[in-house]
Amino acid sequence: METPHSSHLSILARSGAEAIKPFAETLIPLLGDVDVLKSQTGLVMLPMRDTAQGTAFHLGEALVSEAHITCGDIEGYGMRRGRDLEAAMAMALIDAALQSGIAIAECQAFLDAQQRTQAAEDHARLCQVEATRVDMETF
Fold first, then answer.
1. Rounded to 5, what percent of the chain is helix, strand, coil?
2. Which H/E stretch holds residue 101?
3. What is the pLDDT of residue 135?
4. Is 133 helix (H, G, I), strand (E, B) or coil?
5. Low pLDDT (below 50) residues in the chain
6. CA angle 36, 112, 37 (to 5 degrees)
7. Which DSSP string corresponds to 30-90?
């Protein structure tokens, strides 16, 4: 079962950079001193499982940007697909704000809006996929 923290990170990781960056900017004055522990790009392996035999294999690699910050005793983390370090840092700032109890209502409203947007995008994509499905019983 997904925890609230991992759910927040999943939503933030899929949020568009054009939305996440400006929102994180509003949190910087509220967070106080922010220390950057890590800000880098790198490759991560994409693990998959063969459905026929159940064996694990690596499908390939994905380029990610990663940010790890601290605000006092609170840590914030962000990892996103691609090379946008600013978006990863924005994700880490929002994560730190959520964990420290800063601007919770604003952060939750942002997360809810992003989740609705992502659900609508997922639904539209699934409708496009369904339109291409072939029913083999009709052949």
1. 55, 30, 20
2. none
3. 75
4. coil
5. none
6. 5
7. HH---EEEEEEEEEEEEEEE-TTT--EEEEEEEEEEEEEEEETTEEEEEEEESS-HHHHHH
Task: Tell me the two tokens of residue 74.
Answer: 């609170």
69 within 8 A of 99, measured Cβ to Cβ: no
- Phi (first) and psi of residue 90, to 5 degrees: -60, -40
> Each residue of 97-137: pLDDT tens digit?
999 999 999 999 999 999 999 999 999 999 998 888 887 77
Cα(27)–Cα(71) distance, integer angstroms: 12
Nearest of 1, 5, 32 to residue 91 by alpha carbon: 5
pLDDT at 52: 86
Strand partners, 65: 41, 80
Q: Which residues contact 37 (CB under 8 A, 6 or more apart)?
A: 68, 69, 70, 75
Report which DSSP code applies to 102: S
**Cα-based angle 38, 41, 47 (whole degrees, multiple of 5):** 110
Q: Rounded CA gap, 1 and 119, in Å?
A: 19
